[in-house]
Amino acid sequence: MQDICDRPAITTAPSGQELHTLNRTFPAALALILGACSDGPTADKLSSQPTAIVAESGDGQTQVVDQVLANPIVARVTDARDRRVRNARVSFEVVSGGGTIGPDTVRTDSAGLAKAVWWLGTSTAVEQAVRARVIASGVADVSVTFRATSRPRPASTVEVQASGERINPAPELSRVVVARAYDSYQNPVPGATVLWSAPMAGTLRTDQTVTGPDGATENHWTLRATSSATVGEGVYWITATLAGAAMPGSSPTLYVVTVGDARLAATALAVGASNTCAVAKAGQVYCWGDDTSGHLGDASRLPYAAPVSVAAQSFTQIVAGRAHTCALTTAGKAFCWGANTEGQLGDGTQASRSGAVAVAQRGTFVSLVAGGDHTCGLTDEGGALCWGSNRVGQLGDGSLTAHPAPNEVSGGARFTSLTAGVYHTCGLTTGGRTVCWGSNQFGQIGTPTPDGPCQTSCATIPTPVDGSFVGLSAGMQFTCGVERGGATSCWGASLERAQVRSSVPFAFLIGSRASDACGMTDGGRTYCWTVDDDLANYYGYQTVRVGGDLTFWGFRLGDSRACGIERSSPAWVVCWSTVSSAVSEPPGYVLRVGRL
Length: 596
What we know:
mainly beta; 5% helix; disordered N terminus; 3 helices; elongated
C-alpha cells in the first residue's frame, strides 16, 4: 500500500460532492497526515522507519590507553529512502577492548544523529571496538562498528628476559640480553631509551639502546676470567634502567647469572630495617637489600648483594640499624657506613657515607650493637660507649644530646653484654645486674623511670631492672631476658611482664626492631614468639619453631626479614621474608658476588 505521505499532490479541482466530503472529514484527516508525515517535534515518535545506521564521524581515532577519545563517536540513522530518522533509539556497546561508553542508549536528534563518548580500555594488544545498534520493533539487526587504535602510556618499567640462569664455571660467558619496556598497564612501549650498566664485572657492547615496535631491545654482555682459568663461582649481573623524565626514580632491573655454587657461607650476620649483611669466613663483608642511604657500603646504591670494600680489613662481627651498618675488625676497631644524620657512624661528623669510615673510638671493642639511629660498643675493659641519636636518652649519658663520636655511658658500670632496641639500650653488668636506658614509652625499660630531662617517658642513665638474667634481647617496644636455666620473660609493648611459654630452655635470645622475638637452644633450634598480644598478660608468649628441621649457629630478625646461619659446614646463610614464612616455607639461600 502506497504511503499517503508519498502520494502526488492534487492538481485538479474537486467536484461538488468531493468538496462536501472534504469539508466534513478534513480536520480529522489533517491531524492524521500531520502525525505521520510532519518533520515537526513529536515526543518519542519515529519520523520514519529506520533501515540503516552508519558511522557519521569519530571512527578510526587514535588515543592513549585508558583515556577518552578526543572526539565523540557519531552514528547516523536513515530510512529506506536514505532520509535521516529522528527519535530512533540507538544503543552503544563496547564489544572489544574493555573500555567504557556513555551514554549507553540515546535517541537520534533532528538530523538523525546519535552521539556517545568513548573511554578506551587499558590494553594495546586487544582491538578497541564499539557497536552502535538501532533498537526498534520490527527492525532487523541494524548496526555499525566503530574502531579505535590505542597507544601505550610512557614507559614505566623495564624487564629483562631469561634472567636467573645457572651455569658451571667456564673461561668466558657471553650473552645476548633482551629487555622490554612496558607502561603502567604492561603494554610494550616502542621508542623507550634503556640505559645499561655492568657495575660489578664484564663488558657491554653499548651503554644505551632504544626499544623497537614490540617494546624490545638487546645488548651483548661478556664475562672473561682474568685471575684464574675460569670465571669464579658467584653471582654476576648487569642492570637495565629506563631513561627519561616520565619514570622518575625508577629502579634498575637486573639480569643475573649464577656461576657454580654461589651460596654464601658466613660466621656473623646482621639484619637491619632494610638491608642485611654477613661476614664471610675470610672476614670480608657482604651486604644486600636497600641502599638509598649507602648502608650497603659499596657506593653503587644497587638493591642487591654487593661486597663492602674496606681496604684489607678483616671483620668478625657486623650490626645494622635503621639505615646504617657497622662492623668490628679482628683488632677491635669499628667501621661504619650509611646514614649519619644523628652521628650514628661515630666518626665525629654527621655526614652520611657510602663507604666505611673508622669510628673515633677510645679503647678496643669486643662487640657492637645497633639501635635505630644509635650504636654502642663494649670495650675489652667492660666499658660501654654509645654514639648517635639521643632524643630519648638511648646513649645513657644523662642527657638528650646526640653525640657523633663514642661517649661513655653514665655510672661507670662494667658490662658483660649489651643489646639495643630502636630507641632504648640495655646491658648486663659484671655484678649480675640488668640495667636499661632510653625510651620507656611502652614499658620496655621494665621499671618506673626516675625524674629527669624526659620526665617519665624515658631514662637517660642506666636504670636497674628487677630479675636475674644471663642474656638480653631488645626489640622495637620491648625487652626480653633469659634466666640461668633457660626460662625467659618479656616486658614492654604496653604489656605486663610475662613468661615465655616454651617446652625447651633457651641458651640465648634474638631480638627485633618489629614485634617478634626469638630464642635459641644449645643445639641451635630456634623458636620465636610475638610481643604484641594482650593474651600474654594471662597466658604468656607462645613459641613456634622456625626453620623447620634446620639448626643454626646464629639467627637474626629485621623489620621484615629473618635470616640464619645454618649449623653445617659450610655454614650457609638462609633468609625468609618474615618470621611467619620461616615457620612454613623452605629457606632461601643467599648468594655471594662472583669474581673474575
